[in-house]
Amino acid sequence: MSTWAPRLRHGLAAMAFGWWLISVEPAGAATINGTGAVLQGLDKVTARVSEIVTPLNRLVRFGTLEIVVRTCQKTPPEEPPESAAFLEIRDAKPDEETVSLFTGWMFASSPALSALEHPVYDIWLLDCVVAAEPE
Known about the structure:
It is a single chain. The chain starts with a helix and ends in a 6-residue tail after the last strand. A hairpin with a 7-residue loop joins strand 6 (about 85-90) and strand 7. The protein has one helix at about 5-25; strands spanning about 30-35, 35-45, 50-55, 60, 65-75, 85-90, 100-105, 120-130. By secondary structure, the chain is mostly beta strands. The chain has one domain (about 30-130). It is built from one helix and eight strands.
C-alpha cells in the first residue's frame, strides 16, 4: 500500500475540518443575502478589465464565458467585511460543446482561494448587491 494515501486522506480531512471551523458563525452574527453580485473580469488577451453586475440566477456573458451567480452573502457592516458568492462558470465557444469550468464559492477577500483557472479570462468577486431598505 502506498504511504502517501493515508497522509493525503488525513490532510484532506484536516482541510475539511478547518473550513468547517472558519465557516461556523458566532452567536448573533448573521449574513446579509444579496440580490446579485458585482464581479470583475479580466481578458488576458486584450488586458481589458470589466465590472460585471449580475442578478442572482441570471446568465451573463463575458467573452466566451457564461456566468450564473446562485447566491451571494455578505457580512453586516459591524462585522469585518466579507462577501461570498456561489458561482457556476462555463466556457461556451461557438461550434463546440459547452464545458463547465468552475462551480463553487468565491470570496471577495481571498480571490486566489478558489479562483477560476482559464488561459484567457480571470473572474473574481468584488461584492454582493444588496437592495436598499425602504425608509
